Amino acid sequence: MAHNRKLVIGAVALVKARVHNSIEAFEEARDYVEEILISFDWLKGAPFKWVGLIVRYGLKNDEFPAFQNVNKKNGDLPIAIEVDVNDILEIHKNKDEFALYIKKLTFSCLLAVAEKYKLSKKELELELVKLSAI
To answer: What pLDDT digit, counting tens, does each position of 76-131 carry?
Structure first.
């Protein structure tokens, strides 16, 4: 994939539901989180160049993301996490609230990545605490 992103976020529906503001919320979350990752060179020493996160709109909330193998061709680490679409449907109409939810979810997933690949967690934890206070 030809891009300079360090983080890509997308979604897939496992159940029938109409979620509004996904693109806007995901772009805002991606830009926010990616800027932080770049600012402290989080990917330095990682066996991948970027992380691809897929949010699965389903019926349960996974505690941790599912990992795939690092894609040697594209240099990405694909991860996915299922979230209960009923939680999303409570907030999706408010873009700012939905973006905050995605930011927190993304930092939680990246903490799992940091744990697995022995990357820095401190900055991720600080951001998650900061966002949780909002």
So the answer is: 999 999 999 999 999 999 999 999 999 999 999 999 999 999 999 999 999 999 99
With b for 16 or more beta-carbon neighbours within 10 A and e for fewer, the 36-59 pattern comes to bbeeeebbeebebbbbbbbbbbbe
**Is it the case that residue 3 has pLDDT exceeding 90?**
no
d(CA 123, CA 95): 25
Query: What are the C-alpha distances in Å from 16 to residues 34, 57, 61?
Result: 30, 9, 17
pLDDT score at 1: 53
Written as one letter, the residue type at 72 is K
Query: Under a CB-based contact definition with an 8 Å cutoff, are residues 123 and 53 in contact?
Result: no
Sign of CA dihedral 103, 69, 64, 23: positive
d(CA 37, CA 18): 31
CA distance linking residue 118 with residue 58, whole number of Å? 30
Tokens representing 106 are 């993304």
CB atoms within 10 A of CB 20: 14
